Amino acid sequence: MPGLDDLYREIILDHYRSPRNRGELPPPATHAVGHNPLCGDEIEVYLDVRDGVVHDIKVGGQGCSISQSSASMMSQAVKGKTVDEVRALVHRFKSMMSIEELDDADASVEVKLGDLEALQGVVKFPVRIKCAVLSWNTLTEALSQATP
Amino acid sequence: MTALDVASIRKEFPILSREIDGQPLVYLDSANTSQKPRAVIDAMVRCMEYSYAPINRSAYRLAAEATDAFEGARSAVRRFVNAPKAHELVFTKNATEALNLVAFSWGRANLGRGDVVVLTHMEHHANIVPWHMLAAERGIELRWVPLTPDGQLDLTDLPRLLDGAKAFSFTAMSNVLGTITPVRELCAAAHQAGAIAIVDGCQYVPHNVTDVQAWDADFLAFSSHKLCGPSGIGVLWGRESLLDAMPPFLGGGNMIADVRLDGFTTAELPAKFEAGTPPIVEAIGLGAAIEFLEGIGMTEIRRHEMQVADYALRTLTERFGDDITIHGPTNVEVRGATFSFAFRGIHPHDLSQVLDQRNVCVRAGHHCAKPLMRVLGASATARASFYLYNDESEVDVLADALDSATDIFGF
């Protein structure tokens, strides 16, 4: 079986210990809550989108190291990006998690995952994929509220 | 010395000889679902290979044999819970369906706007959600018995909560805390208030001597898969007078006396509540599981689990002190060998992932008891639960594996 080192990379544990962009944003920032009904994990995403750009993002909730570090890294990755860039990043991340597929057009677009690459190892532990993806689904929900 | 010969018992469970990565399986998730002994597997295979046929509806000998085996299982269940009559036992899909049957058949016939049903904070979703659904449909009121700090039912206000109530539905043993509730006392309190007593026996029945007559209960629900039987079958026992007066739950074949273009009449108990082809092979497996457990003795199983529970409480507390929080009572007289715990602030998912490296199987999550988790102030816990095939050495493996989690999450 794959070793725990594949799962619990140092960078993941660092984001878990010291989550970035924790907190809330007042309206008109949008707010979405995501639940993992199987395990009780919860992620809240506050999103401030102005002129098609993610001006600010805050993350709340509680859960395991994978769900919380994924949310923290996600918040860093999307801040300052355009809505279209964020959507491309979500797609790229979910394809890394093997739940979406990249077509040729997707693959030709350059999307940098950066620190998020550290979550690659989660794929070897299929039960934990839902932990890693929870915040991204919540982000998508907050994004669709912000750009109806 | 333990009350059971665990080494011999383990040999009866084929799966327990399985190794993963060269290490034995340490299965501590029996509160979730239990493993199956050879006797159950063989009985089910034999049924399918030798005497499988429809029950209750065909004249040939094979069908008569299958019917006898199926009804034999019902008799075994009757004996196991000391029910007065075999036809008071209804086979369902699982305990959840059994509780839904009570809520929707008895509940719809007997409850209207403003009527009160009393539950407790330690119920799992199967004994909460059907009542919420009935509340939305009928406008009934739900009241809740709270907990004491050590995870027992706080009965201080019970008479007030039960005042005017029509039903009191409660677990005999918490799937999260391990707490064993005073069932006989709770049934008496319900009856004194004019309410019926519905006992959720999912966690209790597999581990203890069950006697619905000594309890003076009105309904009892439990599952086969937690007591060494197959999944796919559960049991509702109900007092004959109550079952007789209730409307049917699911409609279809087998539950009717007659069907005309303008309506139907229902069959006698228990067929009235067993619409469609029942889980035939599963019933035979359940019967075999009960005979297997009876062969060992429920008193002996309970005594063994008290010893393991006592050892687990002492070992984990002595070894980890304040680094571990074990929810529920510390007195093994009022608890089973099911332990939910928090360990060094490590999230239960991460904990169970690390324990899995040592083949230690524990549940992590909310245990289908989210209201209780909110009372405990935890979104999730890890839970280790022991059964007749577990012993003290597995407590030690658990403790060693917990220690290794600190290597990764020791911050």
Automatic annotation (TrEMBL), chain A:
Domain NIF system FeS cluster assembly NifU N-terminal: 8-131
Protein name, entry field: Unannotated protein
Pfam families attached to this UniProt entry: NifU_N
Gene Ontology molecular function, alphabetical: iron ion binding; iron-sulfur cluster binding
NCBIfam families: SUF_scaf_2 (TIGR01994)
Taxonomic source organism: freshwater metagenome
UniProt cross-references to PANTHER family, sorted A to Z: IRON-SULFUR CLUSTER ASSEMBLY ENZYME NIFU HOMOLOG
Upper classification of the organism: unclassified sequences, metagenomes, ecological metagenomes
Gene3D superfamilies according to UniProt: 3.90.1010.10
GO biological process, one term: iron-sulfur cluster assembly
UniProtKB/TrEMBL annotation, chain B:
InterPro entries (UniProt xref): Aminotrans_V_dom, Cys_dSase_SufS, PyrdxlP-dep_Trfase, PyrdxlP-dep_Trfase_major, PyrdxlP-dep_Trfase_small
GO BP, sorted A to Z: cysteine metabolic process
Entry keyword set: Pyridoxal phosphate, Transferase
Listed SUPFAM superfamilies: PLP-dependent transferases
Pfam families linked to this entry: Aminotran_5
Molecular function, one GO term: pyridoxal phosphate binding
Catalytic activity of the protein: (sulfur carrier)-H + L-cysteine = (sulfur carrier)-SH + L-alanine
Annotated EC: 2.8.1.7
Residues annotated as domain Aminotransferase class V: 26-398
Cofactor(s) of this protein: pyridoxal 5'-phosphate
Coiled coil: none
Enzyme class: transferase
NCBIfam families reported for this sequence: sufS
PANTHER family: CYSTEINE DESULFURASE, CYSTEINE DESULFURASE 1, CHLOROPLASTIC
Protein name: cysteine desulfurase
Species name: freshwater metagenome
